[in-house]
Design brief:
This protein has about 140 residues and is an alpha/beta fold. It has 4 helices and 6 strands.
Length: about 140
Amino acid sequence: MKNEILLCFDFGEKRIGVAVGQTITGTASPLATVNVNKHIPDWDSITHLVNSWQPASLVVGMPLTMYGSRQEMSEAAARFIRQLEGRYHLPVFEIDERLSTYEGKQRLGSSWNVDPVAAQVILETWLSEHRDDDPGQRVD
C-alpha cells in the first residue's frame, strides 16, 4: 500500500478545523484552525497548509441533521468543497461529520480549540472506512 497524506477540514461559518493524516497507518492528528471572515475562509492559510503538506486528497466533513438530511450548513460546506476542488485540483471527499465536535470535546475535556480535534475525528472515521481501498481507485 502506498502512503498518502490527506488534509481534512471541519467546515464552520467562523472557523475551519484542519487535521492531517496518512493512509499507511490510518492515523490523523489535529493541525490548525483557519478563520472564516464574512463567509470567506482564510485562503492564504489553507494554501499554506496544502503547499506544506502536499496532500494526495482532501476530506471535508459534511454537516447533516441527526436524521441524515442536508441542512443550510450542508450547502455552505458543499460550496467550500467546490472551492477546494477549483483552487487545488485535488480529489475532495465528503463524509458525514455528525457528532464530530461532540467527540472532539470529549477528547479534550473542553470546547477550547476543538475544531482541529473535530477534523481529526472526521479524518479518522474516513480513514477507517477506506482502509481497504486501493488509493488510486477510491470511489466515494
